[in-house]
Structure formats: C-alpha cells, structure tokens
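Write out this protein's structure.
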Amino acid sequence: MSFEELYATSSDSGFVSDSTPFLPHEPARARGPLVPERSPELEARLALFAEKAQAYRAKAQRGSAMPGEQVRNWEAVNAALDAFLDLPVEHTDTRDLTRARGVMEAELEQDARLYGDMPGSLAEAVVVRVGRLIVRASTLRRWEQPLEPSGPPRLAWPVEPVTITSLYGERWHPITGQLRRHSGVDLAARRGQPVGVAERGVVLRAGWNGDHGKMVEVQHDGQWVTRYSHLSEVLVTTGEVLARGDVVGLAGDTGLATGVHVHFELWHDGSALDPLEALVAPEAAPDTSDEERPVARMPAESPVLTSQGRHPATGSRP
C-alpha cells in the first residue's frame, strides 16, 4: 500500500470511503465514576517508538521501502495501544489519547515523506488504532457532556430554505446512469452556504470520503449518526462537541456531484434510514414538543422534486 492510498484513509482530512459510517464500539454510558489515570507505560512506549523511528529514518534513502525494523517498531506500538485501549474507558485520560494520536500521525507523516511504501496490512492496522483513539476520545467527551436519552432524534434541517431535490430510496444515478440506492435526501443550496448540524452531537469524522467528497459525520445520543456530504469546506474537527445548529461546513459539489447541494443521511446501528422520518417541518420551533412537531414531507404534486431527481441535462445533480 502506498502512502498516497494510506493518507486517503488515516486522518481528519481523509478517511476510508465506506457505505457504513464509522461507529465506535464503546459502552453507551459510563459504568462508574470517571477517574482518569495517566499511563506512564504508554508514554514510555510512545517515546521509544518515536526514538527508534527517527533513527531508522536517518539511515534510509528517500523513496526506499520501509525497513523491517520500522515495520516491527510500528507493530510494537500498535500492540501497546491495544493494551492501553483495553483498559476500562472510565480510567482513560484524554491527555494520553491526544498524545498517542499526535505521535502516531506525526510519525506516519514523516515516514510518508521518506519511504515509498509500507505493507498494506500494517497501514490498515495503523489506521484502525488511530480510529480507536478518535472513538475513545469522542466517547469520553460525550460522557463529560451527557445527552439526555430519548427516542429517535427530531432533527433540524441542515440548510434553509428547504428545497428537496432527491428523495431517499432507489433511483437512477444522474451521473453513472445506474440504478442505485440513494441513502439520504438531497437539499438545494448555494455554494458556500453554511450547513448546520441537525442535532447536538460529537464529530466522528471530518474530511474526504470518496464519492461523498468533503463530508462530516456526527454521532448523536442513542447511536444515531448524521452525514453531510459534498461540502466545499469542512469547518469542524474530529471529536468536537457541537450544539444543534452549529455550522459543520459550507455547501459545495465535491465528490461525485454535478451541482451544488447538500446530501444528508441518517443512520442508526449501521443502517441508513429515511431522514424525512426524523426531520421536523422547517417552521417548527426547536422547543416544540414531539407531539406537536410535524414531520417534513415533500409535496407529491411537485413537478420538479421527484424520487429520481432533476434530469442531469439541467446541470445540477439532485
């Protein structure tokens, strides 16, 4: 695996392009009081890892393959991180998570500048550990600022005014011409228009995601996840805690898109759902009770808004 491929999957500016969001496998709630404890063992392992990595780079030629010693060095620090992350979440110190992630990403970047390649299995293993660090940090932030448990979220629209250009479900893709499942709804937007988060939550991922272009993924209470795709700019970072309506990015047409719009998805426990089942009508106030909140529906008689979207010839992807 080349470093170009790796860097399409490993940091805030790029990550694995999956059909399913990257969900943390962490307890939903703390099982006891949060008692953070620093890990001197992890700090020592990280320091030794960085020291060895620097020594191996000093002897290598630019463009050469990663030497076996550095491969084993990465494997050792991966094992140390596994042991650290196997400790009870309640005793994890966020400073250790920040330190570990910083070392992993900094050393990976330096290796990328020097070596021409690294084993694919090792690259994937490093990505997994960085992802676990991100997830653990997000879990602790959620616990420190707990959300009230509830049923399905009642979501605010990411952009206003609301104009739906494509519905959830099967459709003929306007670019590929193939029948594909459309896992969300598309909303018309102006280039550079602020895109707001639909509900309070924690940023899981923020960056490039293949056909989705620049995308932000936010986890809400109860394992609900929302996605905001085709952004021109991402304005949040992984682990950031957002309040309802906070701007996650600016509307654009990055990725597989023929026009500026926001592709909005809702996921629960690894399955995509129709966002219209949770989005409240634009005129409903945020503090309106669930019983009074009408669910937004698209007018069936609209000549422009159809489940197939606008025709590609108009130059605007639904």
